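Bench log. Compound arrived from synthesis this morning; before running ITC I wanted a structural hypothesis for how guanosine-5'-diphosphate sits in the protein. Inputs:
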Amino acid sequence: MRTFALAGNPNCGKTTLFNGLTGSTAHVGNWPGVTVDKKEGIYKGGSEKVNIVDLPGIYSLSPYTPEEVIARNFILDEKPDGIINIVDATNLERNLYLTTQLLEMDVPVIIALNMMDEVEKKGDKIDVKELESKIGVPVVSICALKNKGIKELMERAVAMPKTRKGQTVVKANLSGAIEKAEKFYENKEASSPVFHAMKLLENDELEVSQKDNASLLAEITESYGEDLEAVIADERYKYIAANFSGAKKKKTEKAVLTKSDKIDKVLTHRIWSIPIFLVILFVIFHLTFSENLFFLNGFGDGWMPALVDDLGWDEDSFWTALVACFYDGAVFSPGVILTNLLCLVTDYITEGVSLLIEVCGGAAWVDSLVCDAVLGGIFAVLGFLPQILFLFLGFSILEDTGYMARVAFILDRIFRRFGLSGRAFMPMIMGFGCSLPAMINTRTLADEKERTATIRVIPFFSCGAKLPILTAMSGAILEVFGVGNVDLITYSMYLVGIVVAICAVILMRNTTMKGATPPFIMELPAYHAPGFKNLMIHLWDKTKHFVKKAFTIIFASTVIIWFLQSFSWSWEFLLEETEEFGMVNLRTDESILGSIGMLIQPIFTPLGFGSQLGTEFGWVFAVAAITGLVAKENVIATFGALAAVVAKQYIDWEGDDGDILAAVAMVEGTGITIPAILAFIVFNMTTIPCFAACATAKAELPKGKFKWTVLFWVVTSYVASCMVYTIGSWWWTLFIWLAVWAIIITFIVLNNKGKLENIKFWKKGRS
Ligand code: GDP
Ligand code: MG
């Protein structure tokens, strides 16, 4: 099978084309640097199967960034049968700069002229035939987003001659020098001699590192001048300008400020950009979590109940329940409505299963295991899936339109002076989805210490798995204490995570992880409407991932939890048949789970959710925090699995499974306070992430840094949640914390200053 590599500038649509060709669902994002690794897939649409490799986006083949090294080495070492060079037609001249370098390699090249829809929309025209005749390799115009032109592209790609000799567009008075270098490499029997020759003349690090190469370069520069690199770059641009600036015919010549520029004037404004970002984020949270959409309190108060009355629905009817999914004195947000509808279904499932067990004559403990523990646990988490998806839809739209790239740009402007570059914000923002790809994405950070610091704080950007914790706990605050808004609390907790992350990075960059902040050069992609297919790919990926987890890790955990809470250490079965509740454990403190929980709960006492919760179930929060280490979904799944036991004993319970809300049962059953609930959320957000994230961190971090990272997570979560709990419970402790931080910061500043002076002094002494 032949292998073709996709190469092109960042954000030119490589991954979109890759997905279109191979039917895979790799992450597409409207910002440069989303694909860091190379990905492979198979194109089956043509007469022969073709292996397709998606390379990271690059501007040149010089080894300035890790991506450029990955792409270059792949082409040189693995020798693909051809390169599909994707060119963003809206940015033709800049994209062709890379093309001029690809053409120097001994490999067949075909150019895929992408984003032709945008060009046409603007009314511009590109003469593909002319382009092809001038450049000397096939050119096919496509629209990756709409899967247009792809078949033709692949047909012409496989029809290309199997070999091609590299050629350079650089001529001028350098021909002699190039020939000389080319001969030199030919004698060495290197592949792609022209490419190597050009790179040598460009003073390329990888090329010059060999001694005989370096001496040849020295020889050449003697007769041709020092600054060959600049001359060659200039030659490339001149060639492009001379041949292709005419290829694109502009309809009109005005285009002083494009639409994107105009939008950017507002969205990246020096002062307003941050408030605008916070408002946009809040709107997304409001639409996802609010129980009171647009604050239309009392909407329908007058006529809704009357209407329901008129229809003659009684309280227990399906229709009443259905209406309650949309409206409850106030209109719910779309996210909440979807969640309610799903819960309606899962409640019916639980009831049905319970009935089935009864009819089949299953023992009472089976009902307790299957309905209370397993289904209770899985559904407690699964119920949040619609909200998770809705939130991600919001994030995906922000990303795909190109706004998220601006956010990195805005944040870079603010945090650069503290040692945190905008490039580091991209993986952080990706962390809102899942820490794993985000940690891998940090490979693009050139400074190792910045990379380490970034990997450490990525888990603080609350991922999808942590969302149920935030939402369920804020829901419980509203339900039990009657205060707060779910959307506001969830939103503030997200912000707390971001603030903790930023503070932690700044702290690290000024103490243990000092280093230069590399310049942040990113081209802001043009705004465009989000692609429906891309959005659906994101959501489908999330759903698959989530459901898979529900029926593996969460399922297993709930069974284990049920088992541990049903038996004592001497294997006595603790569940008892009760008249009203069926099987219940009335002596939970004797169970294995209970005794372990009680043993570890003092650890969490300073955080508000430890042994001070004197009630019989006080230990559930400690247990949930521990089970959450496997997967963060487990926190709420644990509550779900135990909800029936707690609710049956502590809450005025009406015997209807549907009415037990896992988190509410825990809050009511344990008498936990609001500051302690918030501390619990913050703890889970900032502590050691799930197993999978730990494994990724271990693989991505420099050697020996992982154990310190774990310590960092433990300390950060402990301090952050202790602050939340103490300040929330006793406001005056704020001053104590401020004093503590003031001392720490003063110490750091003094320490750094001292070192700075030492260096100056040392320099003076030497001169
Ligand atoms: P990569 O960085 O080169 O892998 O680029 P992506 O595949 O991630 O795409 C970058 C952005 O360009 C995404 O927002 C895509 O939706 C968009 N895009 C890709 N192909 C096309 C196209 O043919 N037309 C338009 N209008 N947008 C496209
Ligand atoms: Mg990509």
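What the model suggests: The first helix runs from residue 14 to 22. Confidence is low (pLDDT under 50) at residues 251-255.
ITC booked for Thursday regardless.
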